[in-house]
Amino acid sequence: MVQLSRICFRKYGNFVDNLRLYVRGGGGGMGLPRLGGIGGNGGDVWVVATKNMALKRIKDKYPHKRFVGGAGANSSVRALKGERGTDKEVLAPVGITVTTDDGKIVGDLNTEGDRLKVAKGGPGGSFRSAFEPSKGQIKHIRLDLKLIADLGLVGFPNAGKSSLLTAMSNATPQIADYAFTTLKPEIGKLMYEDYKQISVADLPGLIEGAHINKGMGHKFLKHVERTKQLLFVVDVCGFQLASKTEFRTPFEAVQLLTKELELYKEELVSKPALLVVNKMDLPDAEDNLAELKEQLQNPDEFSHLLPDNMIPKSCITFRHIVPVSASTGFGVDRLKRCIRESLDEDAAMATKDIHQDRLQALRHHSHVHL
User: Cβ-count burial of 183 within 10 angstroms (0-12 exposed, 13-18 middle, 19+ buried)?
Assistant: First the structure.
């Protein structure tokens, strides 16, 4: 059991929602003084919004995270005007904000095909520059996946997500309107005594087979990427979608939700997650909860309950398992405390990582200059 949870924990942090890149425009080509020849301009670096792209893919494909435009060609007797350097394109997901290292927004990529120039190539040598070329711009930029909320609610249609959101946020959730999405999630704000606010998105219910694009499934899953953490919601008494579909226990519901996320994008399963067991006011709730907890501690022993194609490759280790009743309010305050704790823990980790990053960059910089 100890071994199992360790494997699951190591998978955390696999999901990438921001990336720092080094970009440099290509240098210009030399001019040719005796014939007045002009060197070619260096190529620019562009970030281009591309379908089905993930920041993690950029990170894996370009571990050094360096993107440099092509150099402009020198002017020569054969070609007095040197050829322009080739542009370098960084293919990025749709729905990202590009910022400078100090947080200034360069621009947004909201739709497929949107392009942003992030580093300009240097001009080629010409009469004006005494035929000496210039270097391209050098910058560090950040690609940030736009988040719609701190937490995303994940659950099958009747798990009671909307009533839970209303119970937690003491208000009617607002319908959010974002440029980069077609699906309008409901966003609830959790308020804390120290005035901290945490946003929770309730996305339309997930249906078995969502990764194959049944109902709103695919669009739903696209939005799960845009939350920092996941809040799984299951009905303590299990659920049955329609009279023709099979009855699912709470354990099976958790496994199926995990499988849906995994089939859409494996990294999603590595997001930090909490589990809410709702409808604790129903009869037999306590017994069902005890059984669910036991099954989640030893998922391998119980996975035979599911058909092979529904067993997820990796289990999710929930940071907290919180029993609640959205209708009576039982457990709601504890849930809000757990959510806060989990997000604060991650924020502290992220700050530590940024410091490490900067420290490393400084060390690298001082080595280069020694």
Answer: middle
